[in-house]
Amino acid sequence: MKKLSIILSCILILQAFFAASIYAKSSQVNVITPPFQVTINDTVIDSPGSDYPLLFFDGIVYYPLTYYGNKFAGLQIYNLSKESLRLMGDSDITFVGNSQITENEYFSYAGNYKNSPVMSADILDGRIALNELRLSKFIENEKNEFPFLMFRGIKYLPLTYKFATEQLDWSITFDAEKGLNIDSRDANRPFLNPSHISRGNNLGMTEYVYGENAYAGYPPNTLNGNYTFIYKEKGQDAKSFSLSESNFNGDCYFNSQTTNGADIVEAEVKPALKNGILDIHCVVYNNEEGQYRGKNVIIRIDMLNGAMISSQKI
Predict the structure, then answer these.
(1) Summary mean pLDDT of the chain
(2) Pairing between β-strand 179-183 and β-strand 38-40 as defined by DSSP bridges
(3) Which residues are 266's β-sheet partners?
């Protein structure tokens, strides 16, 4: 307990130091290597002697998105310049998402020197797409509480709970004796195709909702006969199934709501996945008395058995 208190006190002191430095020069911050042991996928990471070490900033460990580092952690990175995006914003996009692990040993990029006690890193310019393809969900990095960093030409991922656990599904624990332990080998997330970002719209793009130890994929709408759903539990293969047009009784727009029967906006109540059951708010359009109008419904789907449970008007 005493050791844990000492470590926490050190972190608080370092947070105060880093907070002062970030306001001194907004695009550049002071960083150090982690003041405790960090183990990733059962490998203790050597940071003091690495060209691309783990970094520690504002109480958060940062992971280097190097070529071999991505293969070891099960990540993919994709860069889109603002010139190639045209009408999709005025800043670059960095996509980071889950991928297959193809390296079992961590490549440390060992240098011929020991890193300085305090080093300088830059806050990465542009937007971050973290396991996300929808433009509306991208992160304005410079406004983020824990921004992605650039150090020695390599982008760095902040291992916050929101990023590492909620969005990448990594297991992270901290122990006073053994330090920080990270395991990315059992992550249960879809492998997204970042090239779809360049489309600039969500047409036909599968959207996802994450539950405990499972995720579900659903189409943005049922136009063009798109009734395909995806379900995957941790440790199991993903499976897909199709519902029929008769299940919806009209054109269905998922994760949506209408205020007047004509407009469509994002649903205030978000999709929920629990015990293999997907609850999702939708707008269903059909002809009633000669008018093509939408109504709000909540749909419940049994993802385990690939069957509609109910469709209730709200």
Answers:
(1) 89
(2) parallel
(3) 256
